[in-house]
């Protein structure tokens, strides 16, 4: 059967389709044609109903109907009563639904509130601008270290051990950022058609990787204390290939799983013999002291794969992440890695090693900055959108806000106001979370005031 696109998926992939000085039907038709030409709406795919498109895009049904009619007249679409509108021709689909489309350059004048990625910390600025040292020792080698430089693997293992997760270097694989780590870990465990259990909501990059791998995905709702244990038990009974979760600092909600709740999740995964991939990328970013707890100690090393990153603590541009797992699992993932990417830059790894030596300093810096920006963000949001609500956050880089209304329409209004948002469906395996919004914390108060003011004026 042809794939049917959800209105949230279409909204994500269209991006900033409404252009000043261009009629809306014409602009929408051009945006849809671009998706068809690029293969994001492949031949045979069924577009959402006109009513759903209109609601998601914040336009009239007549605008959608006119755009569809234009493309149908030009041979790109075909409408059948009772079957909807399908794409007649186009390229093969690149297996994506646009969850990471926000990681692209914003047009001039656009305020980007679509990502929680942080600018470089002061610690990172000091180390990175000082340049690379220690490179001479590696220049007589071929420069390829697929598992990572031994010195960096040791530094990561030492850091994890100090944080309460006993680790040896042979349990660490260095990657080009956490997104690659996530993809490699999932690829080692998931084949096309396999069932994967995830939280709802969850990190959108994990969802994109699972889609690329052809997995079937089932979401388990997350509350302030963690995943719904009853629904998790039913999901594990289905013998999934993997459980992908975040029990430390959760992205996007900023909550953390209670200790007893976390122990129960681990016990159930072990009993079901289901491998667990835990995203620990935000575990440094707690509001209190120390780091967030994880499933380490509750799930044996042969079942647990941990994903980490230096992006949150230092800077995303460094592109250094890691996988921590049992030795045999690391060896298997290493061979997968070689097939697509031989190694991480030696220079980046040397810089990462120096940065890890200042991890505690960086954690304190991030904690101070995020606490200050949380306070200013809350103040601005309450002034501009007093009806918005959210749970208290335990850490992370954003607020998970309930807007109380249709967040897809809000995001479309924001696009017209030159503001990019991250609506809830991007973080849901089923394109749910239709009233939710992830708002980053790191922007200066005046920038956030300007952005939210623009949105309020265009609602």
UniProtKB/TrEMBL annotation:
Residues 22-90 form the HTH gntR-type domain. Transmembrane segments: none annotated. It comes from Acidipropionibacterium acidipropionici. InterPro entries: Aminotransferase_I/II_large, HTH_trans_reg/aminotransferase, PyrdxlP-dep_Trfase, PyrdxlP-dep_Trfase_major, PyrdxlP-dep_Trfase_small, Tscrpt_reg_HTH_GntR, WH-like_DNA-bd_sf, WH_DNA-bd_sf. In the C-terminal section; belongs to the class-I pyridoxal-phosphate-dependent aminotransferase family. GO terms for molecular function: DNA binding; DNA-binding transcription factor activity; pyridoxal phosphate binding. It holds the Pfam family Aminotran_1_2. This is GntR family transcriptional regulator. It comes from the Bacteria. PROSITE patterns: HTH_GNTR. Keywords: DNA-binding, Pyridoxal phosphate, Transcription, Transcription regulation. Signal peptide: none annotated.
């Amino acid at each position: 059967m042809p794939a049917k696109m959800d209105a949230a998926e279409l909204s994500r992939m269209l991006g900033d389709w409404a252009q000043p000085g261009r009629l809306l039907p014409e602009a929408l038709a051009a945006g849809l044609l671009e998706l068809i030409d690029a293969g994001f709406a492949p031949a045979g795919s069924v577009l959402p109903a006109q009513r759903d498109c209109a609601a998601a895009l914040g336009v009239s049904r007549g605008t959608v109907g006119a755009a569809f009619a234009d493309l149908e007249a030009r041979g790109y679409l075909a409408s059948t009563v009772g079957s909807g509108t399908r794409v007649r021709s186009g390229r093969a689909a690149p297996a994506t639904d646009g969850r990471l489309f926000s990681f692209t350059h914003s047009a001039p004048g656009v305020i980007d509130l679509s990502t929680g990625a942080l600018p470089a910390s002061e610690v990172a600025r000091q180390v990175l601008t000082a340049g690379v040292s220690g490179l001479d020792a590696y220049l007589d080698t071929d420069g390829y270290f697929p598992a990572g430089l031994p010195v960096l693997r040791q530094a990561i293992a030492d850091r994890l051990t100090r944080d309460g997760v006993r680790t040896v270097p042979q349990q660490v694989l260095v990657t080009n950022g956490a997104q690659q780590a996530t993809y490699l870990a999932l690829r080692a465990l998931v084949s096309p058609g396999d069932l994967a259990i995830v939280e709802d909501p969850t990190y959108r990059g994990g969802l994109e990787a699972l889609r690329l791998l052809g997995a079937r995905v089932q979401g388990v709702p997350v509350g302030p204390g963690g995943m719904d244990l009853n629904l998790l038990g039913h999901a594990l009974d289905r013998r999934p290939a993997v459980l992908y979760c975040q029990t430390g600092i959760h992205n996007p909600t900023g909550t953390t799983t209670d200790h007893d709740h976390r122990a129960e999740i681990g016990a159930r995964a072990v009993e079901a013999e289901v491998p667990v991939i835990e995203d620990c990328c935000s575990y440094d970013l707690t509001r209190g002291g120390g780091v967030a707890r994880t499933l380490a100690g509750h799930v044996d090393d042969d079942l647990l794969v941990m994903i980490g990153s230096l992006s949150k603590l230092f800077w995303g541009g460094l592109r250094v992440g890691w996988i921590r797992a049992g030795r045999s699992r690391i060896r298997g993932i290493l061979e997968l890695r070689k097939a697509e990417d031989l190694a991480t830059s030696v220079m980046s790894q040397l810089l990462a090693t120096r940065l890890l030596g200042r991890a505690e300093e960086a954690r304190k810096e991030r904690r101070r900055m995020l606490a200050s920006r949380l306070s200013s963000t809350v103040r601005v949001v309450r002034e501009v959108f007093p009806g918005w609500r959210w749970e208290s956050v335990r850490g992370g880089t954003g607020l998970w806000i309930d807007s109380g209304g249709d967040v897809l329409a809000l995001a479309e209004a924001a696009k017209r106001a030159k503001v990019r948002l991250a609506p809830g469906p991007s973080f849901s395996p089923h394109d749910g979370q239709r009233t939710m919004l992830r708002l980053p914390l790191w922007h200066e108060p005046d920038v956030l005031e300007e952005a939210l003011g623009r949105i309020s004026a265009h609602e």
